[in-house]
C-alpha cells in the first residue's frame, strides 16, 4: 500500500513539474496539409493502354487497305502486290459468298463517314475525361 501511494505521489510530482505541452500555432494546418497531400497522391492513377496508339493506327491502316483490295478486286493489277503469292485469294473469290449482295456507294460512304465521326467522338470524350480526372 505504501509503495502504491509513493508511486502515485511521484507521478503527480512529475506531471506538475513537466507541465502541459502545447502544439505549435500551425499544427492543425500542417496536419490537414499532410492529409490532403496524401489523399491527392493516392488519387493519381496513370492508365497505360495495352495497345499503343501507333499500333492502333497500323492495325486500322492494314484493315482499310485489306478491305480496299478485297472490295475493288484489283489485286493482280496493283504493282505493290506483284511479288506476293495471292493464289489463295482466288480460291476465296470462287466461293461466291457475296454474289447476290449489292452494296451501293452511298451506303459505303455513309459507313466510312460514320466510322470517322465515331472515332472523333471517342477521341473527344477521352480527352474530356482525362482533363477532368487529372485536374
Descriptive overview:
It is a single chain. This protein has 135 residues and is an all-alpha fold. The longest helix is centred in the C-terminal third of the chain and has 30 residues, at 105-134. The chain has helices at residues 2-18, 27-43, 53-72, 87-93, 105-134. Among the domains are: 2-43, no CATH class; 103-135. Helix content is 67%, strand content 0%.
Report how far the terminal alpha carbons are from each other.
Answer: 66 Å
Strand and helix order: HHHHH
Class by alpha and beta content: mainly alpha
Biggest sheet descriptor: none
Shape: rod-shaped
Per DSSP, the total helix count is 5
The mean pLDDT is: 78
Instruction: Tell me how many strands there are.
Output: 0
Our Rg estimate from Cα atoms comes to 37 Å
Residue share in helices?
55-70%
Instruction: Catalogue the unreliable spans.
Output: none
β-sheet strand percentage: under 5%
Amino acid at each position: 500500500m505504501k509503495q502504491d501511494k509513493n508511486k502515485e505521489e511521484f507521478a503527480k510530482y512529475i506531471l506538475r513539474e513537466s507541465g502541459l505541452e502545447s502544439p505549435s500555432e500551425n499544427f492543425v494546418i500542417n496536419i490537414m496539409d499532410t492529409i490532403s497531400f496524401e489523399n491527392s497522391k493516392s488519387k493519381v492513377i496513370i492508365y497505360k493502354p495495352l495497345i499503343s496508339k501507333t499500333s492502333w493506327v497500323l492495325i486500322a491502316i492494314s484493315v482499310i487497305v485489306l478491305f480496299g483490295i478485297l472490295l475493288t478486286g484489283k489485286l493482280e493489277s496493283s504493282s505493290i502486290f506483284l511479288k506476293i503469292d495471292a493464289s489463295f485469294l482466288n480460291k476465296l473469290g470462287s466461293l461466291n459468298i457475296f454474289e447476290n449482295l449489292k452494296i451501293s456507294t452511298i451506303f459505303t460512304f455513309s459507313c466510312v463517314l460514320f466510322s470517322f465521326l465515331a472515332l472523333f467522338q471517342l477521341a473527344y470524350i477521352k480527352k474530356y475525361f482525362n482533363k477532368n480526372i487529372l485536374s
